[in-house]
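URGENT: need a sanity check before tomorrow's submission.

F., can you look over the AraC family transcriptional regulator record below? I want to be sure the sequence and structure line up before it goes out.
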Amino acid sequence: MAKPNATYLVRVHSAKMLIDHAMKYYALTYADFDMPPHLFDYQLKLMPLSDLEALLCKIELLTQDPAYTAKLTQSDSLKQFGPFVQLLASSTNLGMAIKRMNTIHNALQSGVQVNMLLSGSIAKWRILTPTMLPQARIHESILAAGSFVRLLKLFHGDDYQPVVIHLSGNMIGKTGEIEAIFNCPIVWNSPNTQVWFPAKDITCPRRFELPTPQVKAFTVEQAMSYMLIPQPQDTLKVVFELTKYALFFGYPTLEFVAQKMGMKPLTLQRRLQDQSIAFTDIVHHSICDEATALMGSELSIQEIAHRVGYKTTASFSVAFKRMYGVTPVQYRKTLL
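Structure tokens as predicted:
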């Protein structure tokens, strides 16, 4: 469960997967969501878990389909694993893939507790995620269980059937609908999400080849570089990431970031002062950090300035030079 005074973060990939599915199967468009479309070009950016959970609830409202997350998990596309697919698919057996998936869960979202226990002939994969919105809990649980079942089917085939799935939250959908989708019994209102399957199946070797054109994937080395994610109560690092997220909505403000952290602006300001740093300093560093990352792209200086919240190229250039001692144009020339 979520801890008080903690701000949990999640990769944008999770939101992109939901919106892509909603647009493909329910005829929704980006206009139906209060999120800038260009945000989803950066799947590994971090966003507040509260925004993802609000999105989960909004999609259920818009689609009028409580089972939409369960249907999403049944896709045979490896895109469900995002850019980490190579890390999973390169595993020599299911046991190695499960260990890697557990690591990936901690790279996709902060505050996750995930493990696997052996109980006699049964293996029990378990995951507990912090929940900010109670009504989103069941959808998070279904997505977690569904991704693990997809991993089992990746190694054992699409006809593979788990022993039982435990889901956190009240029953959704029509009677028996979720059971039919997962093709196994469901236990509702579990304290955590669990997938039970025969322990002997862990040793199953990899018999498939990765269809590389299907998804742009990381190498194992690239994937490992994203294994660290700010801890929920590390205020300074969380604020730094949220100012980067705020850039997609305009120039970062104290009010925007404080709202995402569930506190009053004055409270956040005081917490930063306790660490001898001003919010404006964090914003300045975030903007310059994002700007330098975009310098190697095909975007013009004007487009980069707009992307990081500046209305004019001149004001952006002044701020950039204050940080790096050179103008954006001069900096870009050093990259050639």
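My own read: The chain has two domains: 9-224, 235-334. The longest strand covers residues 113-119. If you see anything odd, call me.
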